[in-house]
């Protein structure tokens, strides 16, 4: 069953707040995934982000803040297309193996956590409350 909750809306809430909430929820869901890795004894060493969303600096910084990880954004953010191109080049004999293809991945920017711990804790607690509310809904 699919459930959704947008919590904390006021009469002053508008499109900007809903877009921010949507981006925030994606970052918090990613945080939950990394926390699951950690609870299984896996600590991320290097996190590279890609895709259309990572062109948004605010999203990248918020993701870094809530996951407490340094994130690396590549110069080419659509790495799926880049990967397909590399595979085609390997297949055509233009590149000799995946090792050579990985040399073409270049960092455009690093995002490091800067959010104060008290602020982060409050936001994470709000996320957990919202998830609990969503799970408590009767489908």
- CATH homologous superfamily title: ATPase, nucleotide binding domain
- The number of distinct helices, counting runs of at least 4 residues, comes to 5
What is the string of SSEs from the N terminus onward?
HEHEHHEH
* Rg of Cα set: 19 Å
Secondary structure layout:
Layout (H helix, E strand, L loop, with lengths): L14 H25 L7 E2 L8 H11 L3 E4 L4 H13 L6 H5 L4 E5 L5 H20 L3
Parallel strand pairs: 1-2
Antiparallel strand pairs: 2-3
Helix pairs in contact: 1-2
Structural notes for this entry:
- The structure is a single chain.
- The chain is mainly alpha-helical and 139 residues long.
- Helices cover 53% and strands 8% of the residues.
- Strand 1 (47-48), helix 2 and strand 2 (71-74) form a beta-alpha-beta unit.
- The longest helix is centred in the first third of the chain and has 25 residues, at 15-39.
- The radius of gyration is 19 Å and the shape is elongated.
């Amino acid at each position: 069953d699919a459930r959704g909750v947008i919590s904390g809306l006021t009469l002053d809430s508008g499109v900007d707040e809903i877009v921010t909430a949507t981006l925030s929820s994606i970052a918090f869901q990613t945080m939950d995934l990394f926390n699951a890795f950690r609870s299984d004894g896996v600590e991320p060493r290097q996190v590279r982000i890609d895709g259309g969303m990572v062109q948004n600096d605010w999203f990248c910084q918020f993701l870094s803040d809530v996951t407490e990880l340094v994130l690396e954004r590549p110069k080419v953010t659509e790495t799926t297309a880049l990967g397909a191109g590399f595979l085609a080049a390997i297949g055509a004999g233009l590149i000799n193996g995946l090792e050579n293809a990985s040399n073409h991945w270049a960092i455009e920017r690093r995002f490091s956590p800067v959010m104060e711990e008290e602020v982060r804790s409050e936001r994470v607690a709000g996320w957990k409350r919202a998830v609990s509310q969503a799970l408590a809904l009767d489908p």
